[in-house]
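Appendix C reproduces, verbatim, an entry submitted by the partner laboratory led by Prof. M.T., so that reviewers can inspect both the input and the predicted structure.
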Amino acid sequence: MRPTILSRLAVLAIAMPAAFAVPAQTVSLQRAGEHVTILMGAAAILPADFPGDVFVPTGATLVRVESLGQDRVVVEFTSDQAPDALAAACARSMAEAGWSPATVEAVAGAHAQAWEKDERAVLVAAWAEAGATRLRLQLLPRARRPAGADKS
């Protein structure tokens, strides 16, 4: 029996999405005694418990989620916005959500920010990469200051 044009189209329709799908990758490993899970490409989704008061860029694509345990996670997005515009949008959003700016070391070629709220901290970096902007947010517990240290 020869395949009909309809059956050939059905096979093609099933095969095409797989051929054009964005690759998804999940990696699990032990690093410094901690379990680390990294989700990339189509596998990358924000964790269900991702805080609602942390900036998430509108219209950006989530490309990587790295769960490091102990309330630490790194998320990376790509965006069509320029790095300075994305960094400014992040700063506005974080301040409006009640985050306080913190001191962060400059990063060559990137806009770097640090934010603190309650017992949490967020480190932000935005930089140009291959015709787009890459935005990395690292969520972690707030660093404890030594007793008597200046709180400014």
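Helices lie at 5-20, 83-96. Additional entries are available on request from the coordinating office.
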